[in-house]
Write a structure and sequence with these properties.
The chain is α+β, with helices and mostly antiparallel strands and about 120 residues long. The chain has a domain of about 90 residues: Roll (Thiol Ester Dehydrase, Chain A), CATH 3.10.129.10. Strands 1-3-4-5-2 form a five-stranded antiparallel β-sheet, covered by helices on one side. A hairpin with a 5-residue loop joins strand 4 and strand 5. The longest helix has 11 residues.
């Protein structure tokens, strides 16, 4: 594996109205703030759609999640660019699997924290 304790992985994503519409259909989360634009023409992104940012690590490294904790700090809107920083806290090989624990912080384009938390899981070796 190419990860080590202390590694920091950064990436970003700009959410669109189409992202919200697709997630609304899949999740059924049809709160009016997700389907009716505000006075600036923006939709509020579903919290769990925002939470897909740190789960990208799971896909990139084939992590089978065991636990995920999210703290939603402020709303995210369409057109916001969210930067996610994931820090590897534990990466320990144990025979046929590797235990992984990471923390993350997500900030909007104004450097305001919008989401933070942690996750743990295993990677099959």
């Amino acid at each position: 594996m190419s990860l080590r304790v202390g590694d920091i992985i950064r990436f970003e994503r700009t959410f669109t109205a189409e992202d919200v519409e697709l997630f609304t259909k899949v999740s059924g989360d049809e709160g009016s703030h997700h389907v009716t634009p505000d006075e600036q023409g923006r939709l509020v992104i579903q919290g769990l759609l925002t939470a897909t940012l740190p789960t990208k690590i799971g896909g990139d490294y084939s992590v089978l999640a065991r636990k995920m904790t999210f703290e939603f700090l402020r709303p995210v809107f369409t057109t916001d660019t969210i930067r996610c920083e994931v820090k590897i806290e534990q990466f320990e090989e144990q025979g046929e699997r590797t235990l992984i624990t990471a923390s993350f912080i997500c900030q909007n384009q104004n450097e305001k924290e919008v989401l933070k938390g942690d996750f743990s899981g295993v990677i099959k070796n």
